[in-house]
Amino acid sequence: MTTPFVPGVLTAAQVEQTAASIEATQLPSGAIPWFEGGHTDPWDHVQGAMALTAAGRLDAAVQAYEWSRTEQRADGSWAIRYDGDVVTDPNTDSNFCAYLATGVWHHWQATGDRSFLDRMWPVVERGLDAALAMQRPDGAVVWASARGVAEPDALVTGNASIHLSLRCGLALAAAVGGSRPDWELSAARLRHVLDEHPEVFAAKPTHAMDWYYPVLGGALPRSTAEAHIDHRWDEFVTDDLGSRCVSTNPWVTGAETCELVLALDVLGRTEDAIAQLAAMQHLREADGSYWTGLVYDEGVRWPVERTTWTGATVVLAADALSRTTPANGLFRGAGLPLCDWKVDTPCPL
User: Fold this and answer.
1) Per-residue model confidence (pLDDT) at position 343
2) Residue 18 burial (CB < 10 Å; 0-12/13-18/19+)?
3) Per CATH, which fold does 12-330 belong to?
4) What does the angle CA 33 – CA 49 – CA 110 come to, to the nearest 5 degrees?
């Protein structure tokens, strides 16, 4: 498999080095913690696994997905936090449960490994069902369940990510010769509230993720997505440094910048996307790993962590921009269903 690269920004050797830094942090169990000695969460673990796939480190990627398979609980969920092999937060995050579908679809697209798909499909199915057990009557999915009791709040970023995961799940169902019309309905209801009823979500207007994440996956009409990004560009984007994590603080972060790169790629704004990928390279360390962020008015890296999920999102952004692997279109929604409504009109539900 060819390693992604972005001319003038990242060489293939540099992307390979970043993937190597992720694999070097992976535990013998297959878990990918945030950093050496740090904890693992199921969402960022899958992000790391996708980067390993994109960089051709397939054995390590499969080992990561095996960790997800073996750690899944009887109700289809995962714990929120693992320190080594110990569960340190047993509660359930809906987005963490759903995101495995995105990772498995990505690996299947990249490799065409049918045995992997057949082994992971039941895990995906249970995970999405666990997430949708937390869908409210209005269509939004609450963010977490603590001790079996659902939290009341739903979050824009988590719901936009769950929507992409549902579409990946539907594509996987078709690949194994099945169908899940209940997921189609859930996805349609979820898309409707994301697009038409933002008031149902807990307000987090200062967070960059709530700004760009609804664009990822390519389900928004182009004109709507363009306006969405342009409206708050000046609040979040800091010239030559990347995107702020929150609009109120002088703090740029690598993962948020690279997710913005992926959103810009959805819109075909390649020059802007490449510029942002280049802008965040000040976070790169000599071994290919990436610092999480920079408080730029003080010139201080914060937190003082080089996170696997930051490096992973760099690799995925490089693949999307370079169109290298067969899975490069994941965040553009390539090959994914739109769940039976017209993309240029509101959902009729």
Assistant:
1) 41
2) buried
3) Glycosyltransferase (1.50.10)
4) 175
